Amino acid sequence: MNVAVIGATGRTGRRVVARLCDGGHAVTALGLTEAKLGLLDGRADAHAIDLGGDGETRARLATLLAPAEVVVSCAHARFTGAVLAALPARGPRLVLMGSVRRYLPIPDRDGAEIAAGERAFDASGRPGVMLHASMIFGTADDGNVSRVLRLLSRWPAAMPIVLPLPAGGRRLVQPIFIDDVAAAVVAAVERPASDGPPLVLAGPTPIAYRQMIEQCAAALGRRARIVAVPIGALVALAAAAARCGIKLPLDAAELRRAGQDKAFDIAPMIARLGVHPVDFATGLARMAPAASA
User: 2-133 belongs to which homologous superfamily?
Assistant: First the structure.
């Protein structure tokens, strides 16, 4: 098929482009800047374009998307409207990336923008699916697990690191390895039968946040001791640190989210996409050596 990938130079987008090329698809890869196009698989036809650009840019986007049978957007869901506006009246299927932040009860700008993108897609009546990923990990710059690994790797191996967490880290998370996210996106491209209601992409089972930290520490030969601290106190500390220009491992918004369970049913993901994600320990084993280097 002829497939266009928007947000192609991001962590997930690069992997999606490579997998689509491996599958024999003709890929038009669209990234934000020329500087990052060199990161893409050389078999893709790569172009730099800013989704927030002017009318001329929007016209160019429409031209680039016109031949596509499927359009994938790995860009933030806030750009869903711009993508929809660039499509021909009778056009391609869409595979859009969102986030499970859309389902969290805490007021959140990103979550609201993702929900708005989902509504715009639904209202368009176009065929396709939106994929809401849980915590994505697996690269040295994922901003999630890699950040924890970097923090732990700097700590002396002989000393346990003490980490204060809301509810003692008992809240649930369900991380998904980045290669499984890419596999899910490609499966959605290649399976028109996957079209329908949004799908959650997450790991096979939820784990407690403290378990995630402890497994990261063990992978690096470190020990972590989790201390329960009221979330209000941690949020106040993070806010004060930010005002002083001190960067903590988690900011106030991240701490609030850490105080919420994030557990999801992935049976629909498996049934519609045929993707069986690896567990956290398996994904961690693939990335911990690189993160500790």
Answer: NAD(P)-binding Rossmann-like Domain (3.40.50.720)
